Amino acid sequence: MSEFRMPSLGSDMEAGILVEQSVAPGDTVRAGDVIGAVETQKGVIEIEVFHDGTFERWLADIGKTVPVGAPLAMIRGAGDPPEQEPVPPETVPIPPDTEPIRPVTTPEPPEVVPLPPETEPTPPETEPVEPEIEPGPSELPDMPAPEPSPIPEEAPEPPFVEPEAPPPEIEPEREMASAARPRVTPAARRLAAERGIDLMVLGQSLDRPIKRRDIEALPSEDKGNVATDFRSAIAAAMSRSKREIPHYYLSHEVDLTAADAFVTAENAGRAPSDRLLIGAVCAKAVAAAIAKYPEFNGHYTNDRFHPSEEVHLGFAINIRSGGLVAPALFDTDSLSLDELMHNMRDLTARVRAGRFRARELSDATVTLTSLGERGTDAVFGVIYPPQVAIVGMGAPRLRPAVLDGKLEPRLMATFSLAADHRVSDGHRGALFLRAIDKNLQTPERL
Amino acid sequence: MTPTETALAEELYKIAPDIELDDIDRSGDLRDEFDIDSMDFLNLVTALGKRFGIPMPEADYPRMQSFDDLAAYLDAQSDKRPCV
Questions:
Q1: Contact residues for A1 (Cβ-Cβ < 8 A; gap 6+)
Q2: Do A350 and A210 fall into the same domain?
Q3: Enclosing domain of residue A87
Q4: For chain B, N or C: smaller number of CB within 10 Å?
Q5: Would you call A268 and B59 a contact, using CB atoms and an 8 Å cutoff?
Q6: 313-332 in A: which are within 8 Å (CB) of B?
Q7: Confidence at residue A424, expressed as pLDDT on a 0 to 100 scale
């Protein structure tokens, strides 16, 4: 029997709301099956199981806000004995936010997604334990094992216990805001939910629990919403990046004439639904180049770089209502161009609809960002921690270029690389960018 | 609006629900006016191709650069179909 716990999608996420239960007790589940969906700052995220087994029961109702690391459901693994002693969810201690909860009876590695170090789940134990300052080492099966930070960023504080369930009529996005870290009196929480006020933002300006009069004192138009949640999620990740990662930057002009001609020729006989975009060719070129430059592909956690054998290219996607996400295109290097294009379309559609999977947000090993055809000549990215590199693609446009001693109009784009100087140097970065260039000169081989 | 323009507006709304047709320059660059990228444009072409039953080849993209151009193109191509 193992607990399926609320996954974390970054150091900024503290809780999510269970908004969908797509399996029922007794259902057979396989690794990768979606069992439900959780609403977070970044939208609705589908949650997947990581092992085969039988779904035992839900530990949280729909609409319930569940802290990161707290149990959501019980799943019996293949071969596990039936459940002995149900553990009511109310009795599970919720530790402070520097220490995710330890599972109660889990015999397997955590099923939550890999996390940045601040919210790294600890390995399972047989007994519930008191929260500690130092998390133990993780034993995630397919990820480099991040180790505990030697110094916790903040001292743990006693968990704030919600004395009663929130009113059921509260809208999900409002309840999301109230799930943030600040301590709030129940009356204040209810009023904030009614008025749609973002308690996380308010809490940052107060060093005491938020009371009802604090909410009443706010101007009524000061409403929290999904867009501000998104902004604070980006703010947390990017601030951490600039605080911790010594970036260095390179740029390189790439001639995309061959790639463009290849796409045009391929698309000539294709229905719109099967057409390629040059962005997919570039994504493939990056993924193919990185095989020889493993120091740009992986995660840096706890003072060590853990290269990844797989290439899960994070693909930055603009959100119309504000913000962006860079979910992973899994195994980008081993997909055909058509498969990659299909996956990019699927991912973009789901992201625009505000719906993607937990692993897609946490498992990218390197990122590609592009401002598109209407963008600027170059973009220099901010590395998304714990990754160590981001490739930027400027808008392709016709520019004068010298080819065989003659001036010619060519379709050119500026590629950039922002990389982590703790892991790599400019010399290798330059070779990596040139390898991308080289791949794009023979697109038919990608 | 003509039926074609209404259909085009509906498909654009699916991609760019935040943009009001009244607020845009219908003869301006469609991608700028609706803030759509190449993926959005491809999705628009895919949807319109299905809806109107026409192939919408990439070679014709230059005739689809504004709302008005695209509506005119859809009308012209629909007229060429043998039976509708």
A1: A56, A74, A75, A76, A77, A80, A81, A83, A84, A105, A106, A107
A2: no
A3: 2-119
A4: C
A5: yes
A6: 318, 320-321
A7: 98
